[in-house]
Design a protein that fits this description.
The chain is mainly α. 68% of the residues lie in helices and 0% in strands. It has one domain. The protein has 10 helices and no strands. Helix 2 packs antiparallel against helix 3, helix 2 packs parallel to helix 5 and helix 2 runs parallel beside helix 10.
Length: 146
């Protein structure tokens, strides 16, 4: 199963977009899948259903951090490399979809009750969000050289 297929299957099973992207890379060294899923759970719906940065994007950012992040305040080269990868990812995702903001991608603000109901009525979480999960995985594979 490809990473893209794994992410889409996870999303279809009910995991959020951030969890689905992160899970697709659960075989990466240093990632405990259960802890990763718990960590990513708060990023769905544009960071806690606030409609901010798309969960597929934040899930990808977490994977980039695992791959090239830093754990020391003096590791400036790792910090610069990781920030460059995050910014490059965000540029590519924005080129593909026009934004990295959940509310802009969905066309409604799910942080409001009216916006959330609109997303449900239009079935956006099942018809629109999977393409963002897919794009995130494809760009992430390219970014990480996988």
């Amino acid at each position: 199963m490809t990473r893209k297929e794994k992410a889409l299957e996870a999303f279809a099973s009910g995991l959020n977009c951030a969890q689905s992207v992160l899970l697709a890379f659960a075989d990466e060294p240093g990632l405990d899948p259960e802890k990763g899923l718990k960590m990513a759970s708060s990023f769905g719906g544009g960071m806690g259903a606030m409609g901010l940065t798309c969960g597929a994007v934040t899930g990808a950012f977490m994977v980039i951090g695992l791959d090239s992040g830093y754990a020391s305040s003096v590791d400036r080269p790792a910090k610069e490399t990781m920030y460059g990868a995050v910014q490059g990812f965000a540029r590519e995702f924005t080129e593909a979809h026009g934004s990295i903001a959940c509310r802009e991608l969905l066309g409604c603000d799910i942080s409001t009750l009216a916006g959330y109901h609109e997303a449900i009525e239009k079935d956006l979480f099942h018809t629109v969000c999977p393409k963002y999960v897919e794009t995130a995985v494809v760009i992430l594979e390219r970014t990480l050289g996988r």
